[in-house]
Write a structure and sequence with these properties.
Elements (H helix, E strand, L loop, with lengths): L1 H12 L4 H8 L3 E8 L2 E8 L2 H10 L1 H11 L3 E8 L14 H8 L4 H6 L6 H7 L18 H12 L8 E5 L5 H15 L5 E5 H13 L3 H9 L4 E5 L8 H16 L3 E6 L11 H7 L3 E5 L4 H15 L5 H10 L4 H17 L6 H10 L10 H12 L3 H5 L5 H17 L4 H7 L5 H17 L2 H13 L1
Parallel strand pairs: 2-3, 4-7, 4-8, 5-6, 6-7
Antiparallel strand pairs: 1-2
Helix pairs in contact: 1-4, 7-9, 8-9, 10-11, 14-15, 14-16, 15-17, 18-20, 20-22, 20-23, 21-22, 22-23
Bound molecules: adenosine-5'-diphosphate and magnesium ion (MG).
Adenosine-5'-diphosphate binds next to α9 and α16.
């Protein structure tokens, strides 16, 4: 009989994730198989009501399916909580699997949230997250590929890969989305994980309340004993707040020592965080630090298309392209523009045409101001290198001028529709061969990599 179950278990192993298998199926305590007529019933013991309800709600089908595979016929599954046995005579032995089950027993938090059907979305919501911020909803492009992969690795194996994972990047680029996607994915895979999501300001406010109510024990307990995954958003806000940092330092250390996963977001690198103690900044660098950059134009179009589909906005490729060219560096703003365009079009019953989009963007002051011209490229490059536009247009040949000039020429050629002679004209009347030579040289720089290549890439991502 046990053999039937063990064979079924091996079958289940091929059907579910290994984590799931360990967490749920291997900890089911097999008691026996009974037969009544044509129906066979398999009996299990579990450690508590939560595991019983969870198994009944989610895994009966998987178990029956596996058993049918091993031994065709009608199967039923009966799950009882050890200690609440209905049939006396079965001896309760403390088997290793039971001990393991007790170890991985769902948390107090989960128990109090417990409803017969525990839904990860509800758990995510109760943990303060937005269940829509998932990996599925996140568009991956070259600007966020690496950080996305790191987040997925952490979600698949909490505390086993990068700990902490430190994500940094500008406003509206998807840090909060990715951070919560980690939390959502962890809960989806394993609803018993205790995920705590909060901004560093929330952390500080809770600390202040705890201090006021003289309940520091409760505060510490919440983090150190009732949390498996700590997700901290916008850590930059604890800069300069010494007692918050002190407490966070200890929280960080305890969790890290206990092998709990920590993920942190920030608007800049740990070492560039003002007013953050070195010892804390260095802790942040213990695991992996990954940056998220402004999305390229292709990614912006893909994000628009995804959002449009989700919201039922009829968006053509041309219109997506126009919006993506007008809003360059902030995904939140990109979404906002799409929502406004969609709402305007539907309110006025106007189709979302190219003309309509252009007109709306003009009214939002998002058109010409940001349109790419040779002059706007020159301006950007000058800002980057701290030189004057007049210098780029001059005939000066010193390296500090000639390098920015060649970069600007290359970008002008790459990012606008202007021809070599036209670009030459806008650089103080230079010959088209000068522009061609500059482009060739910059392509060479890009192919070998290095400081110049890096500057070009960073400027280019700001332009697209
Ligand atoms: P941040 O925390 O970096 O300021 P958010 O995570 O709040 O940015 O992102 C702003 C908005 O843009 C959110 O609605 C988010 O869903 C969306 N967003 C950002 N990046 C992406 C992406 N790559 N794919 C889909 N949506 C994105
Ligand atoms: Mg954010």
């Amino acid at each position: 009989m046990l053999e039937t179950w063990q064979t079924a278990l091996r079958h289940i192993e091929t059907q579910v994730s290994s984590q799931n298998h360990k967490q749920w199926f291997e900890t089911l305590e097999f008691e026996g198989i009974t037969r009544a007529g044509a129906v066979s019933t398999i009996h299990f013991y579990v450690v508590d009501d939560f595991v019983k309800a969870w198994t009944e709600d989610n895994y009966v089908e998987v178990i029956v399916h596996a058993l049918e595979h091993v031994q065709p016929g009608d199967w039923k599954v009966k799950v009882q909580v050890r200690g609440q046995e209905q049939s006396p005579g079965l001896v309760a032995l403390d088997t290793p699997s039971r001990a393991a089950a007790r170890e991985s027993r769902p948390s107090l938090v989960q128990e109090s949230l417990f409803t017969p059907r525990v839904d990860w979305k509800e758990l995510a919501f109760n943990a303060g997250m937005n269940p829509r911020y998932t990996f599925d909803e996140f568009v991956v492009g070259s600007s966020n590929q690496f950080v996305h992969a790191a987040c997925q690795a952490v979600a698949a194996n909490p505390a086993r890969t990068y700990n902490p994972l430190f994500i940094y990047g500008g406003v509206g680029l998807g840090k909060t989305h990715l951070l919560q996607a980690v939390g959502c994915e962890i809960l989806r895979r394993d609803p018993t994980q205790r995920v705590l999501y909060l901004s560093s300001e929330d952390f500080m406010n809770q600390l202040i309340t705890a201090l006021r109510q003289k309940d520091m024990n409760g505060f510490r307990q919440q983090f150190r004993n009732n949390c498996d995954i700590l997700l901290i958003d916008d850590i930059q806000f604890i800069g300069g707040k010494d007692s918050t940092q002190e407490e966070f330092f200890h929280t960080f250390n305890s969790l890290h020592q206990l092998g709990k996963q920590i993920v942190i977001t920030s608007d800049r690198l740990p070492r560039d965080l003002p007013g953050i103690e070195d010892r804390l900044a260095s802790r942040f660098g213990w695991g992996l630090t990954a940056d998220i950059q402004a999305p390229t134009v292709e990614t912006r179009v893909a994000i628009l298309e995804k959002k449009a589909e989700a919201d039922g906005v009829p968006l053509t490729k041309e219109v997506a392209m126009i919006i993506a060219s007008a809003v360059r560096s902030n995904v939140r703003e990109l979404e906002g523009v799409l929502v406004r365009l969609g709402a305007q079009a539907s309110l006025t019953r106007t189709p979302l045409t190219v003309e309509f989009a252009r007109e709306m963007l003009r009214r939002m002051n998002l058109d010409d101001a940001r349109a790419l011209t040779v002059d706007s490229i020159i301006k950007l490059v000058c800002q980057h290198f701290d030189v004057k536009p007049a210098d780029l247009k001059s005939t000066k040949r010193s390296r500090d001028i000639s390098i920015p000039r060649q970069i600007a020429m290359y970008l002008a050629r790459r990012c606008t529709d202007e021809s070599f002679p036209e670009i030459g004209k806008k650089f103080g009347g230079k010959d088209h061969t000068t522009v061609m030579a500059a482009c060739k040289r910059m392509e060479g720089e890009l192919s070998v990599g290095g400081d110049i290549a890096h500057a070009i890439q960073s400027l280019r991502s700001q332009l697209e």
